[in-house]
């Protein structure tokens, strides 16, 4: 299935721990990490919409920023607890991140085919822990969730 000779569950755990910290802070529990091709951590982060009052900080963008400058991304791995939104999918395509590991795509299906069409290797893990954490947040904070995915009630853009 995957060309990665890495323990993807172990990589997901880095992102999940970020998501859990976010959840405990009252934030949107999406965590992510950017890794090199050997699975070494370059940067990690979590959605900070609530914590920093900053809608531009998604888990993926935080990990990307915290990893600092990289000369090339085609050999990098982005692991995220939830399927990336358009904003983060755009980042993946803009910088040609080679591999994306997705914790789950049930609470938010994202745009995984759009990534695959661009040649990104997408690995879906269908992880129960990620699903449960996200579902719990959405149930408890439907308004914050809708805000995070850009659903203001006047339109839909799944
Ligand atoms: Zn995003």
UniProtKB/TrEMBL annotation:
Domain spans labelled CMP/dCMP-type deaminase: 6-123
BP-aspect Gene Ontology terms: nucleobase-containing small molecule metabolic process; pyrimidine-containing compound metabolic process
GO-annotated molecular function: diaminohydroxyphosphoribosylaminopyrimidine deaminase activity; metal ion binding
Keyword Lipoprotein found: no
InterPro entries per the UniProt record, alphabetical: CMP_dCMP_dom, Cytidine_deaminase-like
Keywords: Cytoplasm, Hydrolase, Metal-binding, Zinc
Signal peptide: none
Presence of the UniProt keyword Aminoacyl-tRNA synthetase in the record: no
SUPFAM superfamilies for this protein: Cytidine deaminase-like
Annotated metabolic or biological route of this protein: Pyrimidine metabolism
Major place of residence: cytoplasm
UniProt cross-references to Gene3D superfamilies, sorted A to Z: Cytidine Deaminase, domain 2 (3.40.140.10)
CDD domains assigned to the protein according to its UniProt record, in alphabetical order: nucleoside_deaminase (cd01285)
Co-factor(s): Zn(2+)
Highest taxon of source: Bacteria
Pfam families noted in UniProt: dCMP_cyt_deam_1 (PF00383)
Quaternary state and interactors: Homodimer.
PANTHER family: CYTOSINE DEAMINASE, CYTOSINE DEAMINASE FAMILY MEMBER
Protein name: tRNA-specific adenosine deaminase
């Amino acid at each position: 299935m995957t060309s990665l000779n890495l323990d993807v569950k172990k990589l997901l755990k880095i992102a999940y721990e970020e998501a859990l910290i976010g959840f405990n802070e009252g934030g949107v529990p999406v965590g992510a990490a950017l890794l090199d091709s050997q699975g070494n951590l370059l940067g990690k982060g979590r959605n900070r919409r609530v914590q920093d009052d900053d809608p531009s900080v998604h888990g993926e963008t935080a990990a990307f920023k915290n990893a600092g400058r990289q000369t090339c991304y085609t050999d990098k791995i982005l692991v995220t607890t939830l399927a990336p939104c358009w904003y983060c999918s755009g980042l993946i395509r803009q910088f040609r991140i080679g591999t994306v590991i997705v914790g789950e795509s049930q609470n938010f299906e994202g745009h995984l085919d759009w990534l695959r069409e661009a040649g990104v290797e997408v690995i879906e893990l269908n992880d129960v822990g990620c699903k449960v954490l996200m579902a719990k947040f959405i149930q408890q904070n439907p308004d914050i969730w809708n805000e995070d995915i850009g659903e203001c009630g006047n339109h839909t853009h799944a």
